[in-house]
Amino acid sequence: MKKRLLTLLLATTILTLFVGCGSTAQDSKESATTSTIETETDSQFPITIKHAFGETVIESKPERIVNLGWANQDTTLALGVVPVGVSAANYGLMTENRLHPWSDDAFKALGESKPNVFNDETGWDYEAIAASEPDIIIASYSGFTEEEYNLLSEIAPVVPFLEVAWKTNWRQQTITNATAMGMKEEGEQLVEKTDTLIADKLAEYPALEGKTAGYFWISQDDMSTFYAYLPNDPRASYLNDLGLATPDSILSLAETSEDFSVTISRENTDLLNDVDIMVVYGDEGLLEALQADPLMSQIPAVKNGAVVLIDQTTALAAATTPSILSIPYALEDYLNVLNEAANKIEAK
Asked: Among candidates 181, 327, 334, which has minimal Cα distance to 244?
């Protein structure tokens, strides 16, 4: 089913993958359409994109595209273009090409079985990037330093994150990257149709309606402090897309509007009395440890067993940080496990 969706997406056109238009997360959608992207015109070059390090002028339509950072190649592929180089996946299930399965499937659907993949986990391979002779380097979901941005800019014009590193949601990523390709309207259509896919699928899971959910990082070896992600982080904002509100208890712990996570002390777990569902990286051993702990076990989600454990070696581990291609690939799997958690609440 997953490969069929992606093959249909690229064998016909991306615009026939989904049906209709709509939105399930108005706040997040507005943040995409009101971002700091600025273009000289909607469809003609040159295009100017303002970002965290200044602005990048794209003089003509780029033909040779390099994508660096997290999942930026997915927009390029979804728009029917094969990038000449991409960053290797570094988390979750990976194929022999060192890509997430949805990206690899999209490459193959476009006729590329051996894409050029950079091993940049320990730093950018400037020599390999330059050797791919890009017209542009597109990486709106990334974490460049200014020094790295300047070095990459010596190779080709660079489109990095617009405002804050690693806080670009999937809508902003898709529209920004499409804009840099001279395909802003097509990118916006992708977002609209993906919103419709989410809304249509979400309607099949009424148990999720009205629930809160938090995305957490908890170490089984040391639960003295743990972390909850805020909607600035794409993992938490994706839960909002799926109709699950971020608990007020988590939001209230943010010190600034720029925070992407908050640190919570084990002694303060009583604050989390409005957490219906917890999404946590870990396995069954972590759930047992949470339920055995006299304080952690008092969190409603733990008490009810409404905990979604994300195995870090799976496709879903990467897909919970969504992209325009990972959403159709893994959406149903994610909704299934969230729904299982929601049903545990209802059963209590």
From this structure: 334
How many other β-carbons are positioned within 10 Å of the β-carbon of residue 235?
21
Residues 131 and 239 in one domain: no
Confidence band, pLDDT 50/70/90 cuts, at residue 2:
low
Contact 35, 170 (CB under 8 A): no
pLDDT tens-digit readout, 134-184? 999 999 999 999 999 999 999 999 999 999 999 999 999 999 999 999 999
d(CA 174, CA 168): 10
Domain tally for the chain? 2
Q: Dihedral of the CA atoms 236, 238, 241, 247 (nearest 10)?
A: -10
Q: How many CB atoms lie within 10 A of CB 148?
A: 18
Nearest CA-CA partner of 53 in 162, 130, 195: 162
CA torsion sign for 33, 35, 41, 44 is: negative
d(CA 305, CA 288): 10
How many helices, marked H, and strands, marked E, lie in the chain? 14, 12
Strands 213-219 and 222-229: antiparallel
CA-CA distance, 229 to 213, in Å (whole number)? 11
Percentage of residues in the chain having pLDDT higher than 90? 84
Percentage of the chain surpassing pLDDT 70? 87
| pLDDT tens-digit map of 56-74 | 999 999 999 999 999 999 9
Pick the last residue of a domain from 184, 202, 220.
202
* Domain region containing 317: 206-347
CB within 8 Å of 251: residues ≥ 6 apart? 230, 231
Residues 115 and 162 in one domain: yes
CATH of the domain at 163: 3.40.50.1980
Alpha carbon distance 105, 315 (integer Å):
13
> Which backbone phi and psi does 319 adopt, to 5 degrees?
-75, -15
End position of a domain, from candidates 172, 202, 232? 202
Same domain, 329 and 189: no
- The identity of residue 8, as a single letter, is L
